[in-house]
Amino acid sequence: MGHLDEARFGGVVRGCAACGAAALELRTIIDRQVGVMFGDAVDDGRWAHDGEKFIDGVYAATCTACAAVAFASADCPRCHRVDGLAAALGGSAGLAVPKRCPGCGEGELTAVGFAPGRVVTGGGKREPTPLAALGEPGFHVAALLCDQCDWTAVADGCPLCAGPGPLRPRP
Question: Which pTM does this prediction carry?
Fold first, then answer.
């Protein structure tokens, strides 16, 4: 579990304690799946998380009206390495995407990774906006898959901050 569990998250998103505003901007690092051909993204990707994984990746919650900070953590959201957030947002730890599958030579792969996103609470269900795409700082490839031959690769250690782990279980 991340630094926020469901109960604490519910308290954070209830609204701003400082000014009473209902809307908060949440920053999170969550699962994203991207189609890849010859090493380049062929789509914008899609979020591949549930509500628990969204909460698990939250590293900041800020009031949109008064900018009061409702929650903030500088630790890596995945392994909780102290001050690991800067490496997670600024780097590109994880796997390098090959041009072809090492198993069969197929040019089409699926990359499963973590991307930072932002969403504003209030006003119904909203989809997070990605803040990094495959190949940009902040996007971390955690696994690669080939549908043709079932080849897979999984990143060693923490795919976000390159910390040695151990990785904690995720919800």
Answer: 0.87
